[in-house]
Amino acid sequence: xxxxxxxxxxxxxxxxxxxxxxxxxxxxxxxxxxxxxxxxxxxxxxxxxxxxxxxxxxxxxxxxxxxxxxxxxxxxxxxxxxxxxxxxxxxxxxxxxxxxxxxxxxxxxxxxxxxxxxxxxxxxxxxxxxxxxxxxxxxxxxxxxxxxxxxxxxxxxxxxxxxxxxxxxxxxxxxxxxxxxxxxxxxxxxxxxxxxxxxxxxxxxxxxxxxxxxxxxxxxxxxxxxxxxxxxxxxxxxxxxxxxxxxxxxxxxxxxxxxxxxxxxxxxxxxxxxxxxxxxxxxxxxxxxxxxxxxxxxxxxxxxxxxxxxxxxxxxxxxxxxxxxxxxxxxxxxxxxxxxxxxxxxxxxxxxxxxxxxxxxxxxxxxxxxxxxxxxxxxxxxxxxxxxxxxxxxx
Length: 395
Description:
Layout: H1 2-12, H2 24-28, H3 91-108, H4 111-119, H5 127-139, H6 143-156, H7 163-175, H8 177-183, H9 187-200, H10 219-234, H11 254-271, H12 274-284, H13 290-303, H14 307-323, H15 328-340, H16 342-348, H17 352-365, H18 371-375
Subcellular location: Cytoplasm
Keywords: Cytoplasm, Nucleus, Repeat
Region (Disordered): 1-50
C-alpha cells in the first residue's frame, strides 16, 4: 500500500547525524577548519568559548591586580611604594661623572661630600674603576693630592667599595704602569706608596702583596711592589703610614712653615735664583700663608746691612707679585705686620727705620705695593734741639 511504501522509503533514507559532508546541515556541525587545516580537534582543548570557566579541573593561582582593569580598586590594594630607579652607569659615563668629583675634592678635601655624590650614582660593577681613576689623577697631581686620595680610599671602603674592588683597581694600574710612566716617570714608586698606605689603612687585603710573589714579569710592577714591601716592613709596628706622602699644605705646623720660608729666603740671598725660590714657595702649598714670606723678607732686610739685599728682595717680591703667587691681600698683610712691629725690630736693628723707608719706596716704584700702603709706612720720629738760649728744651 501507499502507507507501507512511504514507511519503507523513510527507513531507507540516511540516519540523523549521518548527512554527507557536502550537505548544508552537516557543514554547520562540522568542527574541522573551513580552510582545510588542523586535525579537527576542539579549540583550546575544549576550554575556550564565550562565558566558560576554562577546562575542567584547572585551578587558577593568585594574579596581581591590573591597574587597567575596570574593577581595579586602588584603595583596596594597600600602601603604594614609589622608588626612583637609577640606571647603571655606563663605562663611557664613568669618567665624565667621577673625574669632576675627584678634582673638586682636591680643592675642598671633604670625603663625606664625595661619598654622598657616589651614592647617587648606580656604579654597579664599575666600582673598582672609581678607585683606579682617583689614583690616576693623584699621580699627575701634587703630594697633597696623593695624601687626600689615600684618605678617600680608606673612607670609601665599606660604604661604597670593598677591599677586593680596590685590589682590582691596583691590579689594573700595575698592568698599566708602562703607559703611566710616560706621563709620570715616578709612577712605580708612587704606586708602591699608594699600595703600602692602602694596606696600612685596611683598604687593601693584607695578603695583597703575597698574591704577586713569583708572578710578576714587568720590571715596573716589581719596582712598585718592592717599594710597598719596604715601606710596610719599615713601618710594621705602625698601624697607619700617615707620613708616606709627607705633611702637606696647611697641615704643617706654623713653626715649620716659618722655618721653611726663612730658609728659602736665605738660600735666595746666597744664590740669587728667583726661579728656585718661586719653585720652593709653590711646593709649600700654603697660599693663605704667603704673607709670612713677605714679613720674613722685609725683616731680613731690616736686620741686615747693605743695599744689595734691599734690591734683591725687591726683585723677588716683584716676581712673586707678577706671577700671582703673592696676592694683594697677602702683600698688604706682610707689610702691615712689619709696620706694627717696627718699634720692637728697631731695638735689635737701629737702622731699621731708614732701610724700611728705602725698601718701601723701591717697592712702590716697581709697582709691588700700592700708594696707600706706602703712605701707611710709619715716619721717622724727628727731635729738634733749639739753641742754648731757649734753655735747651726739646720741642
